[in-house]
Amino acid sequence: MSAVPDTVLSVSDLNRRARLLLEGDFGDCWVEGELSGVSRPASGHVYFTLKDERAQLRCALFRNRARFVAAPLNNGDRVKLRGKVSLFEPRGDFQMIVDAVQAAGAGDLLAALERLKHQLAAQGVFANARALPFPPRRLVVMTSPSGAAIRDVLAVLAARWPLVEVNIVPVPVQGREAAPAMIRALALLNRQSQPGGRFDPSRDALLITRGGGSLEDLWAFNDEHLARAIFHSRLPVMSAVGHEVDTGLSDFAADTRAPTPSAAAEMLVPDQADLRRRLSLAGQRLAQAQQLRLQREGQRLDHLRARLRHPGERLAQQRQHLAQLEARLQRAMRARLDHARQRQQHLQARLNGIDPAGLLHQARLRQRQASERLFAAMPRQLERQRTRLEALARELQAVSPLAVLGRGYAIMEDEQGQVVRRASDAQPGQALTARLGEGRLAVEVKRRLKK
Fold it and tell me: Which residues form a coiled coil (predicted)?
């Protein structure tokens, strides 16, 4: 049994390494084959399988590149794809990320168109995004006057919004003369949209349209100069060329694209029937709101009317209130005077009950008694203090060093006044002072004795 290696890759790590290896080793490449299983989910991406007699390849055309693919992608079509080889890691599917598609029968022409499309996109020719007036006051339709597209547009406009003024500019919509004719018509319309001209860019719109057809029939709308003329148009432009799957340079250069001529007319104007319904509903809501408002205001008026009183009644109430305040003031004044009178009588009675002469006699008696007590207490206090002083003097005498000196002892001091406690603290020949019980002696050390 073989040993397990130290490093074991997870499935995610393995798929990621495989993807990086494939994307690193393969550059852009072209592959030719037949389309199968074409799927267009709501995300805008396109998924399909490219196959030949012996193999098949899963492919993904993401939305940001799918919008530049003019040719329809249908099952069974034979195409040439340009892209990068990669790996879809979550499922481990080997796939090709497509960025260009060409019909196998017209490869050079479509490749040139694809290069032109990238060039115009890089130059900002596809950056128009002005909002068209809704609804426009005047609609200029540039198309073939005998084609099915103009009939569809006029029918939808008449049914939805007959108020719009339609100006038809007849031009050829296929063949060599189509693109130059449309460019000249655009130049004329833009001259008329200058100040003082016939058309107002803020209120009018231009629709360039035609019905469906083959790639060759719609090729005029892939003209570079026509795309640039649409980009520089003062009038806002809507392009509706062919069916929903048909996409030319004019669609990318226009401000707005519609999938079909009928859809363009529906996008340009509102539906009068829908507006009538909405207006009817708004009228009903307005009537209901008005009725409710009238009811609320009527109720408010009744409430205010109930609160409203005659001015005479209001004045009578004020007079009554004033009389009540006057009565309360008079009662308060009488009560205040009665209280002050009673207090004055009480103070007068207290004053009458006081005899100043008697109070003075009593104060003199108290002063004489206090003086007698003071004179009697002074000798006793002096005797107590004298006795206490004598006792303190005896205690002090008992602990005084002078008493010890009186018994024949002496205190020896050096020149600095320091007490000499040991014989070793003095030197022979040193002068000392001996303090006695009475007086002092100057002495000289002759020698030191051990005892």
Answer: 315-342
Going by C-alpha positions, the residue among 166, 172, 171 that lies closest to residue 206 is 166
CA quadruple 111, 117, 118, 123: dihedral, nearest 10: 150
Q: Cα separation of 34 and 51, whole Å?
A: 5
Plot region of 8 (φ>0 → left; ψ -120 to 50 → alpha; else → beta): beta
Structure token digits, residue 315? 């004045």
pLDDT at 252: 93
pTM of the predicted model over 0.70? no
Cα(442)–Cα(433) distance, integer angstroms = 5
Cβ within 8 Å of residue 221, ≥6 positions away: 179, 210, 239, 241, 248, 249, 250, 251
Residue 435 forms beta bridges with which residues? 411, 440
257 contacts 251 by C-beta, under 8 angstroms:
yes
Q: Assess contact for 438 and 450: CB atoms under 8 A.
A: no
pLDDT value at residue 107: 47
- H-run or E-run covering 169: strand 165-170
**Mind listing the domains of the chain with CATH numbers?**
11-122 (2.40.50.140), 138-272 (3.40.50.261), 404-444 (no CATH)
- Report the 10 Å Cβ neighbour count for 294: 10
In order of 32, 38, 72, 262, 334, the CA distances from 75 in angstroms are 14, 6, 10, 27, 116
**Which residue bears the tokens 């003071």?**
374
Closest CA to 103 of 90, 92, 114: 114
What is the residue-wise DSSP string for 384-437?
HHHHHHHHHHHHHHHH-HHHHHHTT--EEE-TTS-B--SGGGS-TT-EEEEE-S
Report the pLDDT value the prediction gives residue 5, as an integer from 0 to 100.
Answer: 67
The DSSP bridge partners found for residue 239 are 208, 257
pLDDT < 50 positions in the chain: 107
- Write down the pLDDT at residue 48: 92
